[in-house]
Specification:
heterodimer, A: 37% helix, 22% strand, B: 308 residues, two-stranded parallel sheet, 9 helices
Chain lengths: 294, 308
């Protein structure tokens, strides 16, 4: 199964889990309730690992993989430290991470294992994984986002992320493990540069502009129609027009790893967060359990 | 109280961790480290009572963030160069200046806030600069972020707000900008001995910018910022902002004695340690066609004016 799981720290803030220091009065329910339903579905299926590609571990020199078994630390969001100061205890499937690293390297992709115990896992990984599995009872693998969009172009990013997806798929198949893939990002990604005095004041929350909304809806419609090859082909244009966070390669990587699904995505929710467009979507390869959620 | 701030020195330094963590692995990285050490000594001798850092590796979205924790403590690891090692730190920040800087930003129309949270991730560039330029925390410091959406007007007003706060508190200041020159790194892993500037074009532009710095032509570099962004800056952000901010903070003129203490490759990017000392008399005979700006008015609501 693959999930597009946006990571605004606001949704964790709004949940008030014991790991997070700030306290909220709620907010962003459309996203949170969507996440709750997705988390319930994930509890019904058996899987061994969550594999996340996150745009908040940005690497310019290749693609990196977490390579140590456990990370305990506090994650403080550099942008929204008032909302997210999360104490985490993360278990990593190092064997699978190394297999993915090796498969990617074999495919000619520049790679690196991250083995510094002081390394702080990025908040994108933490937000997406917490909302999908708040019990944190499954190991993860985190893959960094190579910034080929910045260094080359959106088209090169698409090509390289797709190649990474194919390599990761091979590693997963060879391992015999069942995994949930996670592309941790939003759709349109233009933020407001000011924040309401009470961040969870939902009377202040809306999409940054209508153009962003139209793009988001177009892509969601194509997801519903099972047109993921077309979505990936369109992605460079969408990134250009909406500053879409798919620039980090997450969606392209995940769709390539799933062989470009031609079946409908499950849509769990859409909502703006500080102006950005966020959809929770999942691709269930099992037609017997695939649902029309929204 | 003087109407002009007392800025003693300005430094432009690279953000990469190599001079801090691995100066022995490459002669050029070692020369950068020596330049950092020379700068540290000169800063110590300057009798400054504030080090203000603008770091291009601290991006912000909600306006401009200013580090206001009096004593941040953590161990930082770089996203790309984690294999070089960890950077443990305990810094001494000037929380009073941070608050005053924020107020000055707001008085000029900017959205700004201080951040003072245990465990806040101070960025690689700031950590490198503070550990090498101010290792014993002799001088209280302050760090300001680089807003990802901001452009020229906002950066210039941000620099002027920094001056307002310096003047108000009567600070003697060392201004530090943490930024590369050309910022294109090699996208593959290289042996330290193989490091060089990524391309001849980057090298040529870097040398030209260094000529300007050596002549003390900071305002001229600021005016060339858009050209520099287009020619040698990877489009991670919309503009080459550090020159705008540094020039505005240091008075918008060319009246400096410039000294390039080192210029070397850092995984392909251009890394330079440059000192600017305020001086009488400047160089250059240029005037420019972009307006100066005193107050930031924000978005002009173009989209709300309806479709043509």
């Amino acid at each position: 199964m693959g999930c597009l799981a946006p990571h605004p720290p606001h949704v964790v803030y709004a949940e008030n889990p014991e790991q997070n220091e700030p306290f909220s009065e709620g907010g962003w329910e459309s996203l949170r309730w969507g996440y709750h339903r997705l988390a319930r579905k994930l509890r019904e299926i058996e899987y061994d690992c969550i594999v996340v590609l996150t745009p908040h571990w940005q690497t310019y020199v290749g693609t990196h993989f977490l390579g140590l078994e456990r990370f305990q630390n506090i994650s403080v969001d550099p942008i929204f430290p008032n909302l997210f100061r999360f104490h985490h205890d993360i278990t990593v499937d190092v064997e699978l991470a190394e297999a993915m690293h090796d498969a990617a390297a074999e495919a000619g992709i520049i790679t690196k294992m991250m083995r510094n115990q002081d390394f702080r896992v990025d908040y994108g990984t933490i937000v997406s994984c917490h909302m999908m599995n708040p019990d944190w009872d499954t190991p993860i693998v985190t893959i960094s986002s190579n910034r080929s969009t910045h260094y080359y172009s959106n088209e090169v990013m698409n090509e390289q992320a797709a190649a990474l997806g194919v390599a990761v798929r091979k590693a997963i198949e060879d391992s015999g493990k069942r995994v949930v893939l996670v592309a941790s990002h939003s759709l349109s990604h233009r933020h407001f540069v000011t924040e309401a005095p009470l961040p969870e004041d939902m009377s202040r929350e809306h999409i940054y502009n209508h153009s962003q909304y139209v793009w988001d809806m177009k892509v969601i419609e194509m997801m519903r129609g099972g047109k993921m090859k077309e979505v990936i082909d369109l992605l460079p244009e969408m990134i250009e027009q909406t500053m879409a966070e798919a620039e980090g390669g997450g969606l392209t990587w995940m769709m390539a790893a799933m062989s470009m699904p031609d079946y409908p995505a499950e849509i769990y929710g859409y909502q703006s967060v500080i102006g950005t467009g966020n959809v929770i979507a999942a691709w269930d390869p099992n037609s017997a359990t695939r649902e029309i959620v929204l | 109280m003087s109407e002009e701030p007392e800025i003693l020195l300005g430094f432009y330094v690279p953000p990469h961790p190599h001079p801090l963590l691995a100066p022995e692995q490459n002669e050029g990285w070692g020369r950068l480290r020596e330049a950092f050490d020379t700068s540290r000594q000169r800063i110590e001798e300057s009798k400054a009572d504030l080090m203000l850092i603008y770091s291009t590796t601290w991006p912000s979205i909600i306006g401009h963030q200013i580090q206001g924790h009096p004593s941040p403590v953590f161990t930082h690891v770089d996203d790309d160069f984690h294999f070089l090692g960890s950077m443990s730190y305990e810094f001494r920040m000037d929380a009073e200046y941070a608050e005053c800087f924020r107020d000055a930003c707001e008085a000029r129309g900017l959205h700004a806030r201080t951040v003072a949270y245990d465990g806040f991730p101070i960025d690689t560039g700031s950590v490198v600069a503070l550990k090498l330029l101010n290792p014993d925390n002799r001088i209280p410091a302050c760090i300001v972020s680089s807003n990802v959406y901001s452009n020229r007007a906002e950066q210039i007003v941000l620099g002027k707000a920094a001056r307002d706060a310096m003047t108000k508190l009567g600070k003697k200041v060392v201004v530090v900008v943490v930024a590369s020159l050309s910022n294109r790194m090699f996208t593959e892993h290289i042996e330290p001995s193989e490091d060089k500037i990524h391309s001849a074009k980057d090298e040529e532009w870097n040398r030209k910018i260094l000529e300007f710095f050596a002549d003390g032509r900071l305002e001229d570099i600021s005016q060339l910022s858009r050209d520099i962004q287009g020619q040698i800056r990877v489009s991670k952000v919309v503009a080459y902002k550090p020159a705008w901010w540094m020039a505005a903070t240091m008075g918008q003129h060319n009246n400096f004695d410039g000294e390039v203490l080192a210029y070397e490759a850092l995984h392909g990017a251009g890394g330079a340690v440059i000192q600017l000392t305020p001086a009488k008399g400047g160089i250059g005979d240029k005037e420019f066609d972009e307006d100066d700006v005193e107050y930031y008015h924000g978005d002009r609501s173009v989209l709300d004016k309806g479709m043509l």
